[in-house]
Amino acid sequence: MEDTGDNFARAIASDKLLVIYGVWKELRGGRIGPRRSELTPSHLRRATPWAFTVDLIGDDFRFGFAGDRLMQFLETRCATPNLSGLREIAFFAAAEKLFRRCVETRKPLVSGPKPTFYRGKEHLERQVLLLPLSDDGLDVTGLLGAFDTWQLGTNRHTVSPLLAD
């Protein structure tokens, strides 16, 4: 992993997540985040399997694109396109807290590496990267995310999510 002089980037354990963070930084310019329409498959091509998007719809989140690796981890499509319909599942309740923190702070967020508690995947640890998207340059209107996993015990675990400076 290259040293970018960025403390936030140094907290990213996954090379795939680091690629997505680099693309996001390049596209955002001086804004809080790029527009979702600026994210093209050619930008994310090396890391598309680990990427996903989420739209902020009122007070809820709607799942957009999800890469192959995330879908393999989940093993099935979500029963509902909105996060509010999945809150009773601890994994998605925790995801919602991270999504909300990224939206409220308007800053990139990285969570993990830490053990996952998704049913059937307890033998894995995961790291999640959340990056604000903004259609108007002022408000967060969605998130670009990335997700990677390893066998439990591969990485030193973190306790709290880290926000970019």
What does it look like?
The chain is of the alpha+beta class and 165 residues long. The chain has helices at residues 7-10, 15-28, 41-44, 68-74, 90-105, and strands at 51-57, 60-66, 109-115, 124-133, 142-151, 162-163. It has a single domain (14-27, 50-163), classed as Beta-Lactamase.
Count of alpha and pi helical runs: 5
**Into how many domains do the coordinates divide?**
1
Query: Shape, please?
Result: globular
CATH class: Alpha Beta
Structural class: alpha+beta
CATH level-two architecture: 2-Layer Sandwich
Spatially, the strands of the biggest sheet line up as: 2-1-5-4-3-6
Unreliable sequence segments = none
Distance between the termini: 20 Å
Q: Per CATH, what is the topology?
A: Beta-Lactamase
**Proportion in β-strands:** 25-35%
* Biggest sheet record: 6 strands, antiparallel
Radius of gyration over C-alpha positions, nearest whole angstrom: 15 Å
Strand/helix succession: HHHEEHHEEEE
Overview in brief:
Strand 3 (109-115) and strand 4 (124-133) form a beta hairpin.
Main features:
165 residues, alpha+beta, Beta-Lactamase, 5 helices
Helix and strand layout, with pairings?
Elements: H1 7-10, H2 15-28, H3 41-44, E1 51-57, E2 60-66, H4 68-74, H5 90-105, E3 109-115, E4 124-133, E5 142-151, E6 162-163
Antiparallel strand pairs: 1-2, 1-5, 3-4, 3-6, 4-5
